[in-house]
Design goal:
alpha/beta; 10 helices; 7 strands; binds the ligand CNc1ncnc2c1ncn2[C@@H]1O[C@H](/C=C/CNC(=O)c2cc(-c3ccc(F)cc3)cc(O)c2O)[C@H](F)[C@H]1O
Length: 214
């Protein structure tokens, strides 16, 4: 039977990366997506911007919306301090299964909690289910029309504190116009656009970093 793209991506990791070495997992995925088959990982160019923001925030609690194959999960988790927690939400069980194996290959299972389910269902349960008060850092990379409703939901659920950093992928391509309009005009956020390129291409894309003002 036919394999799926995520299955082929996992195969490339298991073939070319070294267990327990996150950077080799990222390199294997980026090489696979550059030379063999494009996939919607944040990639290395935007990934370096992601790295710099994560290192600056040095978060103890991280939420990622949209795990897919776990590339950005591995990228973020590899930079976290020892007792930090990364919760990543993925509602496609096939993607979740692949991501778990990619995260395990990188040896980062202890820092990552992959929750299989929809952001809309789980954001309201974060406090009671995971003992989270607020998130220090949120990476938005799921369906682009869900960035805005989920950001409003996080506000309503009290999951953001003064200084929480939201970093949104794809604000140009595919684009998240309603989210950008809201976040750039809201007095409750200070936003900054990091110009880059769509993963593995020369097409313009970028990340929007927004700091919640409380
Ligand atoms: C809605 N709540 C959700 N809860 C949990 N998991 C979710 C939820 N919603 C989606 N997921 C999960 O999050 C992932 C979704 C990622 C979507 N990403 C993109 O579409 C995306 C697209 C491009 C792209 C650019 C140009 C082009 F020509 C073609 C594609 C580039 C990118 O970097 C992207 O991130 C996963 F698939 C889905 O199950
Ligand atoms: Mg993306």
């Amino acid at each position: 039977t036919q394999s799926t793209r995520p299955q082929r991506l996992l195969g490339a990791v298991q073939k070319n990366a070294t267990r327990g070495q996150p950077h080799s997992v990222l390199k294997a995925i980026d090489q696979f997506c550059t030379h063999t088959e494009w996939a919607m990982n944040v990639g290395d160019e935007k990934g370096c911007i992601l790295d710099s923001v994560v290192s600056e925030v040095n978060p103890a609690t991280v939420l990622e919306l949209g795990t897919y194959c776990g590339y950005s999960t591995v990228r973020i988790a590899s930079l976290l301090p020892p007792h930090a927690k990364l919760i990543t939400l993925e509602f496609n069980p096939d993607f979740a299964a692949i991501a778990r194996q990619v995260i395990a290959w990188a040896g980062l299972e202890d820092k990552v909690q992959l929750v299989e389910g929809a952001s809309g269902d789980w954001i309201p349960k974060m406090k009671e289910q995971f003992g989270i008060t607020t998130f220090d850092f949120v990476f938005l990379d799921h369906w682009k029309d869900r960035y805005l409703p989920d950001t409003k939901l996080m506000e309503e659920c009290g999951l953001l504190r003064k200084g929480t950093v939201l970093l949104a992928d794809n604000v140009i391509c595919p684009g998240t116009p309603d989210y950008l309009e809201y976040i750039r005009n809201s007095p409750r956020y200070k936003s900054q656009y990091f110009k880059s390129h769509l993963e593995y291409t020369k097409v313009e894309d970028g990340l929007e970093k927004s700091v919640f003002q409380g």
